[in-house]
Amino acid sequence: xxxxxxxxxxxxxxxxxxxxxxxxxxxxxxxxxxxxxxxxxxxxxxxxxxxxxxxxxxxxxxxxxxxxxxxxxxxxxxxxxxxxxxxxxxxxxxxxxxxxxxxxxxxxxxxxxxxxxxxxxxxxxxxxxxxxxxxxxxxxxxxxxxxxxxxxxxxxxxxxxxxxxxxxxxxxxxxxxxxx
Amino acid sequence: xxxxxxxxxxxxxxxxxxxxxxxxxxxxxxxxxxxxxxxxxxxxxxxxxxxxxxxxxxxxxxxxxxxxxxxxxxxxxxxxxxxxxxxxxxxxxxxxxxxxxxxxxxxxxxxxxxxxxxxxxxxxxxxxxxxxxxxxxxxxxxxxxxxxxxxxxxxxxxxxxxxxxxxxxxxxxxxxxxxx
DNA sequence: ACTAACATGTAACCCGTTACATGATTAT
DNA sequence: ATAATCATGTAACGGGTTACATGTTAGT
Lengths: 180, 180
Hints:
By secondary structure, chain A is mainly alpha-helical. In chain A, 59% of the residues lie in helices and 8% in strands.
């Protein structure tokens, strides 16, 4: 169970509804963990069944009511304990790499296109990452402890992203040498 | 369905049994795609039901018989067509990053330990990658087309791996500044 | 006698995606 | 009218992990 822990992590500072979690997962923690709203609602129910989250309905004007979840004492303890479990390295499964193993003169142009699209997507993402780093994490040594961890995740994202851009360039050059 | 395509890719050059696939998946394509033997056997059955793979039993001496699978014409066509489908970027979900968001003085030492272990694992893997690159892919421009694709996958693995090592060093330094 | 490698599977469960479903309010 | 945003769900399916199950041969 890992999405559950990601959700609880997002709830460490703020109480949020399922909708807000789904929205925020597209930025912040969502840089490293994505989930559909259906999955989030399901997980929220499971977590509150375990009493790791408390829920309360919030009445709103001009909007549907929402159900806001917050960490319980038990939830905080479970999350803290989970950090101490050891995880095995997870190989990143990526269709693109499998496709590259199938490179031939017929599909080289298509694969170049896919790589170009990925490159652009990564550029956009890096722009965001860098903006966040400059604004909130410019001097990592002086950050409070927990934000040092967030900085490190961001730093990995930035470095890997820059590396990926360089690889895309290398790949596009080599793919251009494939005759069609 | 992506494991199926990874399996078919592995069967492009050689006919293999489920056992051999599971073993080889720990190297080569398995650098980028992992699967348990159970999952592989299941997938092989599905693929041969679709007539994308042919199977034949091979009688062996001193060993149990094995079932060897090979690509059919229809399989090759389906795989070639799949390469042209477009894939969306898949965010690498990694527990370690979620754990880092939970950094505090109590768990900093444990997280350092996890990062150190990952670092060593990556060192070993990079050693393998580099060995393969030096032996078989030293001059990428002159490779036959399909092997250029394999080279690119390997190249991404090497670059991302080296980047990861650098990040581990950065992380270990910053984690050392967390008082306990 | 025991362990490792060879070889193939079933069953239960969990996690995640896709499609479907509903309904209010606000802005164009 | 129409689309976008807010808000929460169900159902079907697919993919993947873990545990369980079986049996041979070769090496120590």
